[in-house]
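User
New here, explain this?
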Amino acid sequence: MKQTCLLCGLFLALFSCQSDNSGEVPETPENKAPKNFSLLTIADNSTDVDLLASFTWDTAVDPEQDAVRYQFLLDENENPTTIISEGLDTPNYTLTEKLNTDTTYYWKVIAKDTEGNTAESGTAAFTTRGLVLSVTTVQESAAFSARSRHTTLVFDNKLWVIAGDYKNDVWSSTDGIIWNLATENAGFPGREFHTSLVFDNKMWVIGGQIITDSNGLALNDVWSSSDGINWNLETANAAFDPRFLHSTVVFDDKMWIINGFDSNRVPLPSRINDVWYSENGVDWILATDTPELNATIVNEAVVFKDKIWVIAGNSNDGINNTVYASSNGIQWETITENAAFSKRNVSAAAVFQGRMWIFGRERDPFDVWYSLDGVSWFEASLLPEQNSSRFAHRVNVYNDAIFLIAGSELGVPLNDVLKLELQD
């Protein structure tokens, strides 16, 4: 009996020595978050990124070997909060919806293990590519003779070429390839640096310069035609001064004429800095003779977002890259004095796919720029790249493409037709 008690006492003593004196149950080790990881591609500050970009990052290693899933965030904020995808089990993601062109985005990734612990990557910025235009020569040598300083229009579901280089012929085409002569001797005198409009279901020719006794003579006549064959003189002497190198637009159900140059002014040839409008082509009313346009001539004028825009040209300060706008033709504001494109004149402009576009410049390689607001301008990529120069050409939007017609390359007149189409 004594031996039994002694053994029990020894057992209790041994158990007591091996037990935690506090009586507490040992703590379970803390489950740790995945380890830090890095973004790989798209790398920080990348440019010209595809609109359906693919992203990769390092695998986030979990200390306890727990499964890890990823959350992909991307938007235009420096600390992105928009979740594009989550529950990803591989360290990569490819976009399924296109990003905007010419836009800076930010992206990051959050790794989460099965216990809900997270690790967050750094943030990387990138800028998407610009728009891409394919360039196709649809006609190398059109039926009309080589020319520059002409005008072109879209009217009656056709492309039209009107005068230029002191000619007075008129041509039309339904595809830019086959050109048909409407008249080789329109009613108006042969001219160049005139302007043309479509207004009131007619084509119009306004002003320009003719040759008389080897000298240039500025005009202020106005002509119209409903078929391109028969041309009617609306007025031989409009209220505005004779001019060429001017621009015209249709805005607010009126025709508008902006600035110009008069080589016959006394005592000296001079720039004209004024704006006129007409509802019928006969009666012209002065909107302002002091527009904030710095007497810019050889400019490009378009109508965009309920405003008249004047882009680049040659002002009192020389060739420029200034952009102006007006919501009424009277008050003008300078949108930017230094657009991203280089200084230029004798260019061409159009509105296409919700943007303003300007095409080419004198002597330098042909380039194309576009803008959504007149402030920020981006250069379009051209496929194939165009290395030759072109100026005094014209462009028109036709059948969801831009047709560039004739012009001059280093002083040599052209009669080709290019088709520029927006690529995905």
